[in-house]
Design goal:
The chain has strands at 4-7, 10-13, 18-24, 30-36, 43-49, 54-56, 64-69, 74-79, 88-98, 101-106, 110-115. Strands 2, 4, 5, 6, 9, 10 and 11 form a seven-stranded mixed sheet that branches. The chain has a four-stranded antiparallel sheet with strand order 1-3-8-7, with no helix packed on it. It has 116 residues and is an all-beta fold. It has no helices and eleven strands.
Length: 116
């Protein structure tokens, strides 16, 4: 079993910045961030592979940057120019394949609140 532990959420004013961190208990091929608005399903924010390939939701392109430190099994999400509509619970996500089976893991979530 893989554990993902997030940190870095909080309250920030519109236009401000926050950095989220997620430490995995072991190396995971694809790490990323999803967010969930009240009453909605989780949606992709950004993902990154061990090789550095990234994918972003259109709504965050140019404002958020995902990065990772493979030596520390850690993924980061730098969020700049935050908007009130970015307010959500952010979840760290890990995906890997082992012996032909796909595995997915989730962190406990961290609240990000952007005030107007």
């Amino acid at each position: 079993q893989v554990q993902l532990v997030e940190s870095g959420g909080g309250l920030v004013q519109a236009g401000g910045s926050l950095r989220l961190s997620c430490v995995a208990s072991r190396n995971i091929f694809r790490l990323g961030w999803y967010r969930q608005f009240p009453g909605k399903q989780r949606e992709l924010v950004a993902t990154i592979t061990t090789g550095g390939s990234t994918d972003y939701a259109d709504s965050v392109k140019g404002r958020f940057t995902i990065s990772r430190d493979n030596a520390k099994n850690t993924v980061y999400l730098q969020m700049n120019s935050l908007k009130p509509e970015d307010t959500a619970v952010y979840y760290c996500n890990g995906r890997t394949t082992f012996l032909g089976r796909n595995y997915e893991y989730w962190g406990q979530g961290t609240q990000v609140t952007v005030s107007s």
